[in-house]
Known about the structure:
Blueprint: E1 2-4, E2 7-9, H1 14-42, H2 58-67, H3 69-72, H4 76-92, E3 94-97, H5 105-118, E4 132-136, E5 140-142, E6 147-149, E7 151-154, E8 159-163, H6 164-172, H7 180-195, H8 199-214, H9 218-227, H10 238-251, H11 253-259, H12 261-271
Parallel strand pairs: 3-4, 4-8
Antiparallel strand pairs: 1-2, 5-6, 7-8
Helix pairs in contact: 2-5, 4-5, 5-7, 7-8, 7-10, 8-12, 10-11, 11-12
Protein name: Zinc-dependent peptidase
Keywords: Membrane, Transmembrane, Transmembrane helix
Transmembrane segments: 14-34
Amino acid sequence: MLLIQGYVYEYDWVIPYVLGALGLWVLYILFRIFENWYANTYDRLLYRDLFIFRTLSRKQKEILTKEFHFYSLLTSKEKKRFEHRVASFIKDKDFVGRDDLAVTDQMIILIAAVGCMLTFGRKNYKYALVDYILIYPKAFYSNTNADYHKGEFNPREKALVLSWEDFLIGYRITDDNLNLGIHEFMHALQLDAKRSNDIDGLRFERQFQKILRRLTDQELKDKLDEVKYFRAYAFTNQFEFMAVLAEYFIESPNDFKQHFPQLYEHQKCLLNFNFAGY
């Protein structure tokens, strides 16, 4: 009770709400501490989705079922999570056709599905640094280096840019380790992880550093030179290496594991890929 100039102000009713809010805050902090401990101890996430409530239309599900092989590898429960994530991704992004390209449901679903496939093992799957998906009919002229590109990630404009023609080639040929969608989404994922300090970002960076350290091992370097498993473009720089690594991991996991088992395990842990036979 507070007395000011003869007036009585009673604040006792506020106390339970303040204590309740304080208690919830303490529980949240404790949960986050436990979540981080669990991730560091077991090198995996405590959970990925608290709520699964969004779904796709029948037509959109048909596209996934008929045209996206990864979806067919998932269990019924995992399929519902994947559908929720694809629907949430679509709601979160603007898909824009360039050079008079009409954006179709097939384009939206397949591009969103590739992005969500790469982040299916993560908590944060929407690519915070991407607001726009720009789709060209084919290779496009880019002002970044005055040349024609099949795809690019522009963090300044928060845009992922794709040639639909080349996206389809990469997506439909599933065993050549060339996948434009995976490659460009991986670039966005790398920068997102580098700029964030959440569990997903920290786990990504930890495994990323393990991969880089492995690349300094002379025995591995000799084997890379001998086998020549990864295409030459992978060795342009460390970011291109990680993008190419993701293409090989998704498209030919068995060959990847056979040739370079330790790199495979680091990549699997980096993406938290404990499903669909990986």
